[in-house]
Fold:
Amino acid sequence: MRISELAEVSGVPVHTLKYYLREGLLMPGVPVSRTRADYGPEHLTRVHLVRALVEHGGVGIAGVHRILEALDSPPPSRHELLGVAHGTLVGPAEAQDATPPDPAVTAVVAALGWGVEDCVPVVRRLSEAVVRARAAGVELPDEDLLRYAEAMRAVARVDLDVAGRARSAEEAMRTVVLGTVLVDPVLVVLRRLAQEAESATRP
Amino acid sequence: MRISELAEVSGVPVHTLKYYLREGLLMPGVPVSRTRADYGPEHLTRVHLVRALVEHGGVGIAGVHRILEALDSPPPSRHELLGVAHGTLVGPAEAQDATPPDPAVTAVVAALGWGVEDCVPVVRRLSEAVVRARAAGVELPDEDLLRYAEAMRAVARVDLDVAGRARSAEEAMRTVVLGTVLVDPVLVVLRRLAQEAESATRP
Structure:
């Protein structure tokens, strides 16, 4: 199909598709004349993926490149899979940033007893998010943070079950990387729905 | 303090502060000469709040206006509080959008037995997030969605406990509205930390 048809089928405007092409997020079409290229179903799938990541997964262009590379690479071990997925959250430049995490947040992470104190980039991200929320007026005492962490452990159990069901290494990679980024918005909305449900049960 | 000092203390560049002023997100300083205004601690607090919402809460300018209005308004009942918080997720224009939620997602919401089928704007947002994730290659079967929902119910229990502890109606408003938006990024990072912890316990 032409780029105009790809735009119509995908619901993504032509100028955005051209932007994806320029940024290397969408592979070029097959040239059929000097000014026209042909796009197939693999382009449509890629457009859906890129749009979901950029517009709704809150992933920047560099993050999308990292994810696309991961999906195209030979899958590493299960543990490295998680590393790649988490690398989409923490870019390489950011990972080198030496700002140490807030000691109070590090103490909460240790109190969880999860043995994850060594995941420094993720702990640093947690610290940033907690410090920001507190600076903006959310109290977020340590006890609440511990309870939130326990609830998210239940989410992670589902995540690992999903990854464990993958029928191939490629599917495991896709599941872990995309599931981590694209299920976040689902969880955020489920939280609001659960607030409504929980609110109705309280006096 | 001068705007340059406010920039230094808050870590937000002067041109961004001027943008916040133009957009009405930051209240004007007290004029001390024809070309200078004075900013106080209330401006610093507001800058922290706006930056947290815009840069890290993923809230658009219109959403920040809705949140600031809510924080300045006389607080409504507990149930309306949630409505205001959820209004920060679903703008008025969007709420009027008549696209019905995906029937499969509506069926999952009904299967939860939470009695929240009537929260149409939130169910529609859930449907959009699920449809998008599935179109981008995440399978997300209904059983997984139900398990994710149960985990987020535990998060909502903490949320409602936090709101219930508020010492005043103003604090309840602040807690619910900001806690909903600014704790999302904390939960997302906790999910990754929990994935690492859960992964270590599996063979």
